[in-house]
Amino acid sequence: MENDTCVNHDPFIILGSCKSCPKELSHAELLSIIIKCVNFAAIKHKDQRRKDDKETPYINHPIGVANILVQEGNIHDPIVIVAALLHDTVEDTDTTFEEIENIFGTEVCNIVKEVTDDKNLPKAERKRLQIQNALNKSHKAKLVTLADKLYNLRDIQESIPIGWSQNRVKEYFKWSKAVIDGCRKTNFNLERELDLIFAERVSEDKETCTCKKPLIL
């Protein structure tokens, strides 16, 4: 891996015999990149755990996001899948954008940049910016965002993160919907699954609400 970080080589761009036109990658070459990316992400996230009561290994999350894109979003673009596998590495580990670009190429790096929060900003500002920037994200970054939110919301449905109150859960759902609304008309299947979750949440809130005000996410 040390040698990889020293050479700025995009694995998705391999020139043909004319040395000017990129050639189509073989299945073996694409598989090699995907497995290399999974291994890279696993190493980066190796000491991290999710906030559920089982302390699930964090690597389950980016792999799960990539799986949602393939299995439910019907997305088979390797650039998107690799970006999904790497989407939290810069934000949550010691990975740098330069490292990602050197190993996995400029397009993957740019997608990861689009979905990465600036940890130097206060949390409230980071969340506000996610809503504000959602509409202007590239199509591929929106795909990663949709799958990421879908994975996280399902996780919360199954097990509320340790230390979270019901009000915090409610606010997370409300904020997530605001982000997703900026990514509309990107992938029907993923948006449908998200809307089903939001509708279920509204229904649950209505059952527990004691006032007469309509509940809107």
UniProtKB/TrEMBL annotation:
<dbReference type="InterPro" id="IPR052194">
    <property type="entry name" value="MESH1"/>
</dbReference>
<dbReference type="GO" id="GO:0046872">
    <property type="term" value="F:metal ion binding"/>
</dbReference>
<comment type="similarity">
    <text>Belongs to the MESH1 family.</text>
</comment>
<dbReference type="Pfam" id="PF13328">
    <property type="entry name" value="HD_4"/>
</dbReference>
<dbReference type="GO" id="GO:0008893">
    <property type="term" value="F:guanosine-3',5'-bis(diphosphate) 3'-diphosphatase activity"/>
</dbReference>
<comment type="function">
    <text>ppGpp hydrolyzing enzyme involved in starvation response.</text>
</comment>
<protein>
    <recommendedName>
        <fullName>Guanosine-3',5'-bis(diphosphate) 3'-pyrophosphohydrolase MESH1</fullName>
        <ecNumber>3.1.7.2</ecNumber>
    </recommendedName>
</protein>
<feature type="domain" description="HD">
    <location>
        <begin position="58"/>
        <end position="153"/>
    </location>
</feature>
<keyword id="KW-0479">Metal-binding</keyword>
<keyword id="KW-0378">Hydrolase</keyword>
<dbReference type="InterPro" id="IPR006674">
    <property type="entry name" value="HD_domain"/>
</dbReference>
<dbReference type="InterPro" id="IPR003607">
    <property type="entry name" value="HD/PDEase_dom"/>
</dbReference>
<keyword id="KW-0464">Manganese</keyword>
